[in-house]
Design brief:
mainly beta; Immunoglobulin-like; 0% helix; 30 strands; Jelly Rolls; 5-stranded mixed beta sheet; 412 residues
Length: 412
């Protein structure tokens, strides 16, 4: 066929299915929340990953909270972890735009990348500021008296605490103790007994994650009274503090359902502990009435406790009372969100105001009609410290008063 002098060729294909090969997926990522605040957890999620991720190297565009590096690496992860680096979390320490990108190393030697994309941080919020400081008690200790140092201003978990006590301790104790956390010790306190009097400059550094923070040094004055062998005597005045006598021993107990409360279930040490609760509609309590010397310079109660609950909060309760009054900070909501998954050490209860008396120290729980809660108590300590005779003073009179003193000039 010929049209206007042009040759036209027409080809017809019959029975042919045309198909197109889709373009390969393109690596990308999203984040949530879209406009995060300082200190808020930002979750980055990868999309379009075309292989198995070995490592993901993120460039965050800014420093994170607690000094976290602006370059973060995820992986390699063990197969049993169930994770694959497809998500990553980060907390920014400052506001403004952050240029974020990621590079993937894939199994088999390949790699891929995405970004940079801009994440805009709102000018609000804050990081948990790590500003360690030192407090201690008693304020004017004697030689040989136990001084409890406490770390304040560190809301995060401590990975290492390094102390410089400023002088040798009793029995040649190292003045530079280090603490590494364990299941039973969060390293936020340290006890020390000084072997000499005078001013002691105490220093502290703490490690949190990959960062080190230094507290301002404090100076405490140790009196020249006392000694490592007899300056101030400290005694746990609780009888059977680990409940090792079992039911019917030093502890009084009461269960509204008639159960024995001092049992061999879940002891922290030894063979016994106090098991309070553990059944619906129960009121449990164990108590002692120990003496606190009128001359005590300190009297502190501490204990180990384990919360195990199936309940929601606000219904099952537990705690400590002193003479029937709830000890501040020692009232526990027994519920799923407060489960401790093991024993933890309590904060200290200051009982020095009860010097010269015999206060009732009572541990209790109350449970409602559903969802069982238990509170276990073990290894309770009521440490009472009383001044003794200083180690360098055997007699009360140094002959300065002559024969009319406490000394007699005749042979009995």
């Amino acid at each position: 066929m010929r049209l206007s002098g042009y040759a036209v060729a027409i080809t017809v294909s019959i029975g042919v299915v045309l198909s197109a090969t889709p373009a390969s997926a393109q690596l990308d990522f999203t984040w949530s929340p879209v406009v995060p605040e300082i200190g808020e957890t930002v979750v980055f999620t990868l999309t379009g990953v075309t292989g198995t991720i070995e490592t993901a190297t993120w460039t965050m565009g800014g420093i994170g909270c607690d000094g976290a590096s602006a370059t973060q690496i995820c992986g390699p992860l063990p197969p049993w972890s169930g994770e694959d680096c497809s998500q990553f979390s980060f907390k920014y320490a400052s506001a403004g735009p952050k240029s974020v990108s990621v590079i993937l190393d894939l199994a088999g030697g390949g790699n891929d990348s995405a970004g940079p994309l801009t994440v805009n941080l709102a000018n609000s919020g804050s990081c948990d500021v790590v500003t360690p400081s030192i407090s201690y008690r008693p304020s004017n200790p004697d030689i040989g008296e136990n001084v409890l140092f406490t770390i304040n201003g560190v809301p995060a978990d401590i990975d290492k605490a390094s102390w410089n006590m400023g002088a040798i301790g009793c029995d040649g104790a190292d003045p530079t103790p280090e603490c590494f956390p364990s299941l039973w010790n969060d390293c936020k306190s340290q006890a020390f007994k000084y072997a000499s009097g005078g001013d002691k400059t105490v220093g502290l550094t703490v490690e949190v994650g990959s960062n080190t923070f230094t507290a301002d040094p404090v100076v405490l004055t140790v009196a020249w009274s006392g000694s490592c062998s007899g300056g101030v005597g400290c005694t746990n005045v609780l009888l059977e503090p680990g409940f090792e006598g079992g039911s019917g021993s030093a502890w009084s107990e009461n269960s509204s359902n008639g159960y024995f409360l001092i049992t061999m279930n879940r002891p922290r040490s030894g063979s016994f502990s106090a098991w309070l609760g553990g059944i619906d509609n129960e009121v449990s309590s164990v108590w002692q009435v120990p003496p606190i010397d009128a001359l005590a310079t300190s009297a502190t109660l501490s204990y180990w406790y384990w919360i195990e609950s199936e309940d929601i909060c606000e219904y099952d309760k537990g705690g400590v009372t002193v003479n029937g009054l709830l000890a501040r900070g020692h009232d526990f909501d027994l519920c799923l969100s407060t489960n401790t998954s093991g024993y933890v050490q309590s904060e200290i209860v200051d009982l020095l105001p009860y010097a010269g008396t015999t206060p009732e120290i009572l541990f209790f729980t109350t449970t409602d009609s559903s969802d069982v809660s238990s509170l276990y108590i073990d290894d309770a300590i009521l440490e009472v410290c009383v001044p003794g005779i200083p180690g360098d003073q055997v007699f009360s009179d140094g002959f300065e008063s002559g024969d009319v003193s406490a000394w007699s000039s005749t042979v009995p």
